[in-house]
Design brief:
Blueprint (H helix, E strand, L loop, with lengths): L1 E5 L7 H8 L6 H22 L12 E6 L4 E6 L6 H9 L6 H8 L5 H7 L11 E9 L8 E5 L4 E6 L6 E8 L9 H11 L7 E4 L2 E8 L5 E5 L3 E3 L16 H11 L8 E7 L5 E7 L13 E5 L2 E4 L14 E5 L9 H6 L1 H24 L1 H21 L1 H7 L4 E3 L5 E3 H8 L10 E6 L6 H9 L4 E3 L5 H11 L3 E5 L5 H4 L12 H15 L4 E6 L8 E4 L2 H11 L6 H4 L5 E6 L3 H8 L3 H18 L5 H14 L1
Parallel strand pairs: 2-8, 14-16, 19-20, 19-21, 22-24
Antiparallel strand pairs: 1-6, 2-3, 3-7, 4-5, 4-7, 5-6, 8-11, 9-10, 12-13, 13-16, 14-15, 17-18, 23-24
The protein binds adenosine-5'-diphosphate (ADP) and magnesium ion (MG).
């Protein structure tokens, strides 16, 4: 009894299309076939539990084997099997609404996942690597007959009586010429490792098999036997499927090492576990993040019922959480649709805010539980918390209570604590509280000291995200401004009423200005003569806060800011009219001497900010020696 028929697809050349367009991703055939085997196994187990199958379950290990000589890969399971009728129903009637829609859709498809899932082509992905596929199967149902199905990649198939004696299914792929790379132990091992490492049914990988033509050998055993190494390749119950109360810290750390063998231990982790209104499990780890946030992306692995899908979790995980590591498993994430659809998907949105909330809660909890330990971790998590606060409004709301500000004395404050700390001294005449910060403790040391002398506190904002964070804080906090400590002379950073009067006459000021302009002769510096404390430096070089911040932001990639990045640096040169050195410059005998002294004072200011380099530095040293 042999039956021939046509697979009901309304186009003749579906297989060439599958092969051609899905080529780049063709390794997923193994994921699809092994997960079908696993599904079939899970189903028979469930039927057994429900009492609908009363036979022996036996060893249900799924087996993957290949034969280099015969050029076959075989996937075998002891799942529920199929009757001939079921093959016709589930395999032959390919579930998609029409060839036209298919052809229309795959044009834009970016990867095989999109097509395979959308059109229910899981099984057919076999034809990406095989020119002929056989199914040998025996259904668990009593009185079933074994069935054999073969198809050579055209739309013609053949179905006949099979010889399989025990319950389950073998899928035999006759690997095509272009895909012989898959007949390799390491290649297959690698693919299994990637996609099947955490499948819930044990999977054995035989590196070599002996095969007998008809699906069973003389004894009625399975068609092939793996004769070399055969080892179980997966962990059937990875930690995210377990209850947190059954797990120790060691378990979490061990799993982390398994996922990222080269990484340092994570700081802490969150176990995700929801089943309503969507289903999601997972473990997210906080790695030690320093500044290399680009490098660390794509570390979260996305699974669907323990089958690895992708490590591109964009859109499912909020942008700022992409720095986390770990695993998310959800059967509710639509994996097979386009990106724009994903963004609009309500489950994805819910998952997104669930994860955000969980992460915020965890951080809040760590902060409350042990402030000291939290402060110690701040260097590693700060970048991440700030990033979150900038990019997600909801996260800002929570983060503002556990985000820390560090000052130059290495003391930590919450935003609120800091506000109360500096308000009394650092509020200007317009009732604005000014937070001062430094981005480079070495270069800005003289400014920090001047500020400290006035009783001002200075924050450290030296991570690449800080220019954005500062902008963000300023927009959120009322009556608060942030200024870099070198945005102006200390006297003027926080404008109070009691400023020093400039002791120079208007005329004297004018000639001081001219002397310095001549000495500096660079239009990127504008000279201003001001009345400052005689304790201050004679010359101070500052860059106005707004412009400098825009430039910093342009540097760390703020698209709209790039305009500022292209502008030349512009500095203010504040001349302290009350300083004896300025008096000396003014009263020098010759024009030449005036210029020389002015230049010297200017170079000293540059020097103290690390701005004096190259030829200018050499000239300065030479001049200093002469003057001695
Ligand atoms: P999906 O797995 O999404 O249903 P597939 O194309 O992978 O789509 O498989 C189609 C159907 O074929 C499955 O739903 C199942 O009924 C049947 N099938 C495939 N492989 C097996 C197997 N190894 N054992 C039993 N049934 C299978
Ligand atoms: Mg499938």
């Amino acid at each position: 009894m042999q039956e021939k028929g046509t697979i009901s697809i309304h186009t003749e050349n579906i297989f060439p299309i599958i092969k051609k367009f899905l080529y780049s991703d063709n390794e997923i055939f193994l994921r699809e076939l092994v997960s079908n085997a696993v599904d079939a196994t899970q189903k028979i187990k469930r039927l057994a539990t429900l009492g609908q199958y009363t036979g022996e379950l036996g060893d249900v290990t799924v087996e993957v084997a290949f034969d280099e000589k015969k050029k076959t890969i075989t996937i075998s399971d002891r799942g529920l099997g199929m009757t001939a009728e079921e093959i016709k129903k589930y395999i032959n009637q390919v579930a998609f609404s029409g060839a036209e829609e298919f052809v229309e859709k795959f044009k834009d498809a970016k990867d095989a996942n999109e097509i395979i899932g959308k059109f229910g082509l899981g099984f057919y992905s076999a034809f990406m690597v095989a020119d002929k596929v056989e199914i040998h199967t025996l259904s668990y149902q009593e009185g079933s007959e074994a069935a054999k199905w073969t198809c050579d990649g055209s739309t013609e198939f053949e179905i006949s009586k099979g010889k399989r004696k025990d319950r389950g299914t073998d899928i035999i792929l006759h690997i095509n010429k272009d895909s012989e790379e898959f007949l390799d132990k390491w290649k297959l091992q690698g693919i299994l490792d990637k996609y099947c490492k955490f499948l819930p049914v044990p999977i054995k990988f035989g590196t070599k098999s002996e095969s007998v033509e008809d699906g069973v050998d003389e004894k009625g055993d399975k068609k092939w036997k793996s004769v070399e190494i055969d080892n179980i390749v997966n962990t059937t119950a990875p930690i995210w499927t377990k209850s947190p109360s059954d797990l120790t810290d060691e378990d979490y750390l061990k799993f982390y090492k398994e996922l990222y063998p080269m990484s340092e231990d994570p700081l802490f982790w969150i176990h995700l576990n929801v089943d309503y209104p969507f289903n999601l499990t997972g473990v997210l780890y906080f790695p030690k993040v320093k500044n290399e946030f680009e490098l660390q992306r794509n570390k979260i692995k996305l699974f669907s019922r323990q089958v690895f899908i992708t490590d591109e979790v964009k859109d499912i995980v909020p942008e700022f959480l992409m720095l986390l590591h770990g695993v998310i498993d959800s059967p509710d994430i639509p994996l097979n649709v386009s990106r724009s659809f994903l963004q609009a998907d309500s489950n994805v949105k819910k998952i997104n805010s669930y994860i955000t909330k969980k992460v915020a809660d965890k951080l809040g909890e760590l902060y409350k539980k042990d402030r000291k330990a939290y402060e110690e971790k701040w260097n590693d998590i700060g970048l991440f918390v700030k990033y979150g606060m900038i990019s997600e409004e909801k996260f800002y709301e929570k983060g503002k209570d556990f985000a820390l500000l560090k000052n130059t004395n290495n003391e930590y404050f919450t935003i609120e604590e800091y506000q109360s700390k500096v308000k009394p001294v650092q509020t200007d005449k317009n009732e604005q509280t000014i937070f001062l910060y430094a981005t480079d403790l070495n270069k800005q040391d003289s400014f920090i000291q001047s500020a400290n002398k006035k009783g001002y506190d200075v924050l450290v904002m030296d991570s690449p995200i800080d220019s954005h964070f500062i902008q963000n804080l300023e927009s959120k906090l009322e009556k608060t401004q942030l200024k870099r400590v070198d945005a102006d002379v200390a006297e003027k950073l926080i404008q109070k009423d009691d400023t020093y009067a400039n002791l120079l006459t208007e005329e004297q000021s004018k000639s001081v200005k001219e002397i310095f302009e001549k000495a500096i002769s660079n239009t990127n510096y504008s000279v201003e003569v001001e009345g400052l404390s005689p304790e201050e430096m004679p010359v101070t070089i500052t860059m106005e806060e707004f412009m400098r911040r825009m430039k910093d932001m342009a540097q760390t990639g703020g698209g709209a800011m790039s305009f500022y990045g292209s502008l030349p640096d512009h500095y203010k040169v504040a001349i302290n009219g009350n300083h004896p050195v300025v008096d000396k410059v003014l009263k020098a005998e010759t024009e030449e001497e005036k210029t020389r002294l002015a230049k010297q004072a200017f170079d000293l200011a540059l020097l103290s900010q690390g701005l004096l380099t190259g030829k200018d530095l050499t000239a300065f040293v030479k001049r200093s020696v002469e003057m001695m």
